[in-house]
Amino acid sequence: MADDELEEDITGNGNGIKLEDFFHGQMDQLKADELLNQYEPDNYYLVRERVITESSEKPDEQFCISLHTRVNGQPKKVHFRIRQSYDLCVIGGLVFHSLSELVTYYTQVEIYPGGRLEHPIRPKHSCPSNRCVMAIMNYTKSAGTDELSLTAGDVCQVQHKNQDGWMWVAHVKSAQSGWVYDGMVEDLNSPNYDPELESCEFYHPSHREERVEELKSRPTGTYFLRPSAKSRSVSVLCVNCNDAIKKFEIERIPGGFNLSGKAFRTIDEVIQRYSVKYIDEKNEVKLREPLLRRSHAASNLPQEDIYAPNRASSTQIRECQLAAEFHCLFPKRRSRQRAWKRQRCILHRRQDENHEVLITSSSEVGRQPKGKPKGLIALEFAHLYPVCHGAYDRPHCLQLVIFNEVSANSTPPDVYVLAADSQAVLAEWLAALKPLCKCSKVCNHGQRSGHVRHVSTLEVAVKGVRNLNVSCKTAFVAVHFNGVVVAKTRSNRREQDDDSVLNWDEQFHFEFFPECIHTLSLHMTRRKTPKTTKVMKHDVRVSDLSLGRTSDFKVPAAQDKLQLCFSVRRVGYAVLQASKDYVPIRDIFLKSKDDPTECLRALAEVCTSEDLTYLARAIYKVFAYYDQVANLLTSLLLREIQSISCESEGVLFRTTTIGTSVLEVYLVTDEPMQFVRHCLGEMVQEIVNSNANLELKADRLLHSSGEMSDLDEADSIARRNAARLIELLNSCMRRTLRHCQANGCPAILHQVSVACQQETTRRFPQATARVLSAFFFLRLFCPALTTKFRQVFGAELHQEVSPQVLRSLQLAAKALQLFANQSKTMREACMELVRPFVCENTDLFNQLNTCLTASPDPVAPFSAGSSADAPSSSSAGAAAAAASSSPSDLQNISLTFELASVHDFCARHLDDLRNLQTRSGSQNLNTLIKATEFLSNRLSNETNR
Question: What residue stretches are annotated with the PH domain (predicted)?
Answer without folding.
Answer: 322-438
